[in-house]
Specification:
By secondary structure, the chain is α/β, with parallel strands linked by helices. α6 (about 185-195) crosses α8 and α8 packs across α25. The structure holds adenosine-5'-diphosphate (ADP) and magnesium ion (MG).
């Protein structure tokens, strides 16, 4: 449908290949190949006023031009303007350039000025032969992202040709453009490719100009639309309807030692309703650490089980999965439900037995790690998949559940407090429920920042806490992302602390323990047999020991904000007053200081995430999911929050009221992004 790139132009195959390299496959792609920056050739700077470090355009007569051979082959020219001189230096040059720079010629050169051995010079300036009549351009010149062998001139010509020959009709209804006070699409594109003389480089470069605003909005809108469309497609698929019978769920609620919080009740109603539908639920349950997501997941599991369907409950680490297994067994066994445990580290025979119970339908609840996704595990009648800490799994894994029969409902949970803006952008294909309230009776965690020089005082605090019957964590840092080094630090710390506290029972948990050892250690800590647990960051997610009220995080300056927040969430789960000590080593980098300040001043995970986004940008926050999603080229979610929110609302409105416009918009923006549309 879209004209190929070469029609109606004659473009050499070599150029086509280069264009493909920078993502231009169709002529329409040229339109959205927008300048990276602009060069200001509209005026000439007198050589005397050119300052080192500045990029300027100068003009002068060539007074000297010579090829020097030492230290390497270099073309050196001098140009003169009045009494002032400037050296131009070229390390790679063609004979044609040498000719252009012959003595006596007038030259305009653009480049960065620097102080050289013989006074001011430019290295590899862009040069143009001129005479006294050559006019200066009236407006800024665009500089496009390109690749070796594809010149700005060629790109510019192709783009301008596309601008003239492809209709730039607006995809959005006029009423909407007016309501949102948007610039026209065609005008915006033309302006960004060929700025008018009145526009300054700074408004274009900071991307605050209304033309940029329009392009960013369109891009965000396309992203939202495609995810909403995807969401719709899924809602056309068939899943088993799992109506509430309120038998098992109510039996569990009656037995609980606590009442659900208002927020838990609200999200549970949303999930229970989704399960009654005959299309697959795709819901993300967001809730800060300790907000009580597990019980909600257990209720969802029971509603599926009540209907005779199987449930897979998955967690990213063995420690966490095991903890869910123990918790759910405690809650569900009294109701006559016996979960089966499946993890990669099980002995082959045990694993085979477990998968047989799953494929025969003998068990209705399977809990485990990603081993549940493996090829040899086939569910008899899977109705619901629950995925904890879903950001640790990739998109692929999420879809790899093997099921006989209909598609299962999916409940994903995450404690990575994702800022609302990010959640909206990256989970627009999911329905989102948020638990925005912590269970009552928690005492707030006191956070202390302590320099490593005062380590002794921290030891004393640990001793005191343990002696009055509380428990403590001592978390060892991640060193250079190296597991081996982390292990070594953990072993050393364990040895040191054992020496310092001969009177305490101290355990050690790290990633290299076998799962039996890990489970045994965690169980002993949970039962209070161990008073102090030295651990690596393996305890980052989900470990729940309410009696633990003190956490020391060693070398806290090395950890990310989200990680610190997750770790800190391991304490403050009971009624005892809790404390988190962040031990840091001086001197602190600017970024580390800023991170520690944020974690010290805030306890709300969503605020912390928002700050994290500002400190680091969105890339790292998103982890695995990011790889499956086309990144934004023009918009920046940490800066364009407002546009993002608007685009989300408008996406729904467009799909509802102007489906043709939505289709045209997706066609313009997403025609090439097949993977994106398929995620
Ligand atoms: P997370 O959301 O981090 O997964 P958990 O589900 O592990 O949190 O819950 C944290 C702790 O809070 C658990 O000990 C859990 O039993 C307890 N809990 C959950 N809901 C409530 C509630 N409504 N009232 C009191 N305690 C609760
Ligand atoms: Mg949890």
């Amino acid at each position: 449908m879209t004209a190929t790139l070469a029609t109606p132009l004659k473009i050499a195959p070599a150029t086509l290949a280069k264009l493909a390299k920078i993502g231009i496959h169709h002529r329409a792609d040229l339109l959205l190949h927008l300048p990276l920056r602009y060069e200001d050739e509209t005026h000439i700077t007198p050589i005397t006023q050119a300052l080192p470090g500045e990029t300027v355009q100068v003009q002068g007569e060539v007074t000297h031009c010579e090829v020097m051979f030492r230290p390497r082959r270099t073309l050196v020219c001098r140009i003169q303007q009045g009494d002032d001189e400037l050296t131009l230096r070229f390390l790679n040059f063609y004979p044609s350039q040498q000719k252009q720079l012959a003595v006596g010629k007038q030259i305009r050169a653009i480049g960065e000025v620097r102080g050289g051995f013989f006074g001011l010079e430019m290295v590899h300036p862009k040069c143009k032969a001129v005479d006294d009549e050559t006019p200066l351009p009236q407006s800024l010149s665009p500089v496009y992202p390109t690749t070796a062998g594809l010149s700005q001139t060629v790109l510019r010509k192709l783009i301008n040709n596309a601008l003239e020959s492809i209709p730039l009709s607006d995809t959005l209804p006029a009423s909407l453009i007016e309501r949102l006070d948007l610039a026209e699409f065609g005008d915006s594109l033309r302006l960004l490719h060929n700025p008018t003389p009145d526009i300054s480089a700074s408004t274009l470069e900071t991307r605050s100009h209304s033309a940029w605003r329009r392009i960013k909005f369109d891009e965000l809108l396309a992203q939202q639309l495609s995810m909403r469309v995807h969401h719709r497609e899924r809602s056309k698929r068939v899943a088993p309807s799992l109506p509430a019978h309120d038998k098992l769920t109510h039996a569990l609620l009656d037995k609980l030692p606590f009442k659900l919080t208002g927020a838990q009740q609200k999200v549970w109603r949303e999930i229970a309703h989704d399960l009654t539908q005959s299309h697959p639920m795709q819901r993300l349950l967001l809730g800060d650490v300790g907000s009580g997501k597990t019980i909600v997941a257990a209720l969802a599991a029971l509603q599926a089980i009540e209907n005779g369907y199987q449930v897979a409950f998955m967690a990213p680490t063995e420690i966490l999965a095991e903890q869910h297994y123990l918790k759910l067994r405690e809650w569900l066994e009294p109701l006559g439900i016996e979960p089966v445990w499946l993890s990669g580290s099980l002995k082959k025979k045990v694993k085979t037995a477990a998968s047989e119970r799953i494929s025969s339908g003998d068990t209705l609840l399977a809990i485990g790690t990603h081993a549940l996704f493996q090829k040899d595990v086939e569910f008899h009648k899977l109705g619901l998949a629950i995925i904890d800490e879903q950001h640790k799994f990739g998109v692929q894994q999420r879809l790899a559940l093997r099921n006989k029969g209909k598609e299962p409902h999916q409940l994903m949970m995450s404690a990575t407090p994702i800022p609302r803006t990010l959640a909206m952008s990256y989970y627009a294909d999911l329905d989102v429920s948020v638990i925005d309230e912590l269970p009552p009776g928690r005492t707030p965690i006191v956070t202390k920042l302590v320099s490593d020089a005062r380590r002794e005082e921290v030891f004393e605090r640990v001793r005191q806490a343990c002696l009055i019957g509380r428990q403590a964590y001592w978390v060892c840092p991640l060193i250079d992302e190296s597991e081996a080094l982390q292990l070594q630090t953990a072993l050393e710390t364990h040895a040191t602390l054992t020496e310092i506290f001969p009177e305490l029972r101290i355990g050690l948990a790290h990633g290299k323990l076998s799962s039996e050892e890990k489970a045994a250690t965690m169980a002993a800590f949970k039962a209070g047999e161990l008073q102090l647990l030295v651990a690596t960051t393996v305890i980052e997610v989900g470990v729940d020991v309410p009696n633990a009220s003190l956490m020391v995080i060693d070398h806290a300056e090395r950890m990310g904000l989200a990680q610190l927040h997750q770790l800190r969430g391991r304490v403050g789960r009971g009624v005892a007053e809790s404390m988190c000590v962040l031990l840091f080593q001086q001197p602190l980098s600017e970024l580390a200081r800023e991170r520690l300040r944020v974690i010290y001043e805030n306890t709300d995970g969503f605020i912390i995430a928002q700050q994290d986004l500002q400190l680091r940008g969105p890339g790292e926050l998103l982890g695995a999911r990011q790889s499956g999603v086309a990144m934004l080229r023009f918009a920046d979610i940490s800066e364009d929050e407002e546009l993002l929110e608007t685009s989300r609302e408008i996406a729904d409105e467009l799909l509802r009221e102007h489906p043709d416009a939505a289709r045209a918009h997706l066609q313009r923006w997403m025609a090439n992004k097949h993977d994106f549309l398929q995620v």
